[in-house]
Design a protein that fits this description.
Layout lengths: L7 H6 L14 H8 L3 H7 L1 E5 L1 H9 L4 E6 L7 H12 L3 E4 L2 H7 L8 E6 L15 E5 L5 H14 L2 E4 L9 H7 L8 E3 L2 H10 L3 E5 L16 E5 L16 E3 L12 H15 L2
Parallel strand pairs: 2-3, 5-6, 5-9, 6-7, 8-9, 8-10
Antiparallel strand pairs: 1-4, 2-4
Helix pairs in contact: 2-6, 4-5, 7-8, 7-10
Length: 281
C-alpha cells in the first residue's frame, strides 16, 4: 500500500525541491557545502562558505555575491539571525531551511548559530584595491595559520589599514580566516599577489615598507610610522623573505624581555598597526 500523501516516507522517496525543509545528510546540496571546506573545491568552483550572522551580515553589507543561505531556526540564538534573513530575502537571495542535523553536517563550527552562506569569490588583484585610510597598509607573507590571517584582518579593520597578502599560496577564503576575521575580510581593502608584484606596487605609489624582524636594532617605537607606509609581517617560523630587507625598507623590532625571540604574527601586526594609528592622532 502506498503511504499517504505528505507522509515522511513519501517525502523521503522524492528529491528535495525548493521550499522543502532540507533534512537528508545525503542531499547533493549538503555534500556540495561540505566539499567547499577543501581549497581545491573552492578554487575550482570560485565559491566559498561564510558561516555566522556577523560574518554574513558584513558580507551582505559589503556587496559580496551571496548565492544561497542555509538556515536552521532551531539553532538561532536571538533576533539577529531572523533580522538578517529578512534582509537577505528582500534582496532575493535564495534561502534554504534545514533541519538541525543537516545544518550541523554542513557547519564547520562546534556551536553553529544556524546561518551559512555560499558566496562567489571576488577578484583580489592589486588593480582592484581602493585606498586605505591615512595611507596605512599591512603586508603579510607566509602566514601558515588561517586564524592568524583572520586576526590580522580584524586588527587592520580596527586600525583603518588595507591588507595585501604577498603570497598567492595563502588561502584567504579558508573558513577559519573568515571566522577569525569576524567578517572583516569583506570590510578592508584586500589583495593577493606575489612579493615582487607587491613591492612594485608599493614603490609606484611611494609607500614606505616598514619590515618587522627580530634582527632589527631599532625598536618600533622609535620609527616614523606616519604617512604612506606598509607594515610588513612574515611567518612566525621563517620571518619575512630577504627581499623585504633591502635598502628601500626600514626594519624595526618589538623589544622582548623574556626567552622568546618573537611574538605571534597576528599580535606583532596588531602592535605595529596601533602604534601607527597612535602616531596619526
Amino acid at each position: 500500500m502506498c503511504p499517504p500523501h505528505g507522509s515522511a516516507n513519501a517525502r523521503r522517496d522524492r528529491p528535495w525541491r525548493a521550499g522543502d525543509l532540507l533534512t537528508s545528510l545525503q542531499n547533493a546540496r549538503v555534500k556540495h557545502v561540505v566539499r567547499l571546506r577543501q581549497r581545491r573545491a573552492r578554487e575550482r568552483e570560485g565559491r566559498f562558505v561564510v558561516e555566522g550572522w556577523r560574518e554574513l551580515a558584513r558580507a551582505f553589507d559589503a556587496g559580496a555575491a551571496i548565492e544561497t543561505v542555509f538556515h536552521c531556526d532551531a539553532l538561532h540564538r536571538g533576533a539577529f539571525e531572523r533580522d538578517l534573513l529578512g534582509r537577505l530575502g528582500r534582496a532575493d537571495i535564495e534561502l534554504v531551511a534545514t533541519s538541525a542535523e543537516a545544518f550541523r553536517k554542513m557547519s564547520y563550527r562546534q556551536g553553529p548559530d544556524g546561518l551559512l552562506g555560499v558566496v562567489a569569490s571576488q577578484a583580489l588583484g592589486l588593480d582592484q584595491l581602493g585606498d586605505s585610510r591615512d595611507g596605512l597598509w599591512l603586508v603579510v607573507e607566509g602566514i601558515e595559520k588561517p586564524g592568524n590571517l583572520g586576526a590580522m584582518l580584524r586588527s587592520a579593520d580596527a586600525a583603518g589599514a588595507g591588507v595585501i597578502v604577498a603570497d598567492p599560496k595563502t588561502d584567504v577564503f579558508n573558513p577559519n580566516v573568515i571566522r577569525a576575521s569576524i567578517g572583516t575580510l569583506f570590510t578592508v581593502p584586500l589583495a593577493v599577489a606575489t612579493g615582487d608584484e607587491v613591492r612594485g606596487w608599493l614603490q609606484a605609489r611611494a609607500i614606505r615598507p616598514i619590515t618587522a624582524t627580530p634582527e632589527a636594532t631599532a625598536p618600533y617605537t622609535e620609527a616614523d610610522l606616519t604617512g604612506n607606509i606598509a607594515i610588513v609581517i612574515g611567518s612566525e617560523h621563517a620571518g619575512v623573505s630577504r627581499a623585504w630587507l633591502g635598502a628601500d625598507s626600514a626594519s624595526v623590532s618589538i623589544p622582548m624581555s623574556g626567552d622568546a625571540d618573537s611574538v605571534n604574527a597576528a599580535m606583532a601586526a596588531t602592535i605595529l598597526l596601533f602604534e601607527a594609528r597612535r602616531q596619526r592622532i
